[in-house]
Amino acid sequence: MISPRELANLARLKLKTLRELSDTDLAEKLAELRMDLNKIRAEKTKGTLKKKSGDMKWVRRDIARMMTMINERKQKANAN
Fold first, then answer.
1. 21-79 sits in which CATH class?
2. CA 4 remoteness from chain centre
3. Which among 3, 36, 12, 23 has a CA at the least distance from the CA of 67?
4. What is this structure's pTM?
5. With contact defined as beta carbons under 8 Å apart, do 32 and 2 qualify?
6. What 3-state class would DSSP assign to 77?
7. Cβ atoms within 10 A of the Cβ of 8, count?
8. CA–CA separation, 76 vs 80, rounded Å?
9. How many Cβ atoms from other residues are within 10 Å of residue 13's Cβ?
């Protein structure tokens, strides 16, 4: 599980570092971020979310960025 400190570091992943990841690593990080987003949403629903409320925005954006990378790779593979 990713600690809040690691999550803050992950939330600012650069596109360059994402492009260097293999497909399996990208899928693993995507799964981790989705789990963390679900935890943040659950805390928000319970009302126990405090300082991580701003992280939700960055986690959602990172998930979208990773999904874009995966879809680009799929399209590239299908084109060849």
1. mainly alpha
2. 13
3. 23
4. 0.76
5. yes
6. helix
7. 16
8. 7
9. 17
